[in-house]
Amino acid sequence: MATKKQDTSSRIADNKKAAYNYFFEERFEAGIVLEGWEVKSLREGKVQLTDGYVVIRDGELFVVGLQINPLKSASTHVNPDSIRTKKLLLHKEEIRRLVGKVEQKGYTLVPLNLHWKAGKVKCEIALAKGKAEHDKRDTIKDREGKREVERAMKSRSR
What we know:
Small Protein B, Chain: A; seven-stranded antiparallel β-sheet; 32% helix; two-stranded antiparallel ribbon
């Protein structure tokens, strides 16, 4: 179940580092199990996704390293843990397929972004393969080339 491009207004957080470090094979949209204080913090944008990764334990997916910082006004009877491991929700058949792919050499699961969909928080994950150092250099070279072209077009239109 590959996903479509998300609306930028519904985005909560992006993992920009992932596109630099990995080639994406397939993308999946998963639900995420959160506590009430975490949802409130997400609404305020108190989240960091760049160090996150997905692990498979007992046939279930968990995102590790997703940091949701508690609000200052958090309730006193709740003990917020900002780096708690959060469970991802996917159909059993999708999980089985992902387990088979991840067991192949070089594949991993990476969280790409968090976004709102119908009032619920969703996590877009990707089946990814790590880039070699020369691939990363090519990515930088392409990005610099695009910037130069945009600068030239901008100065020419003035």
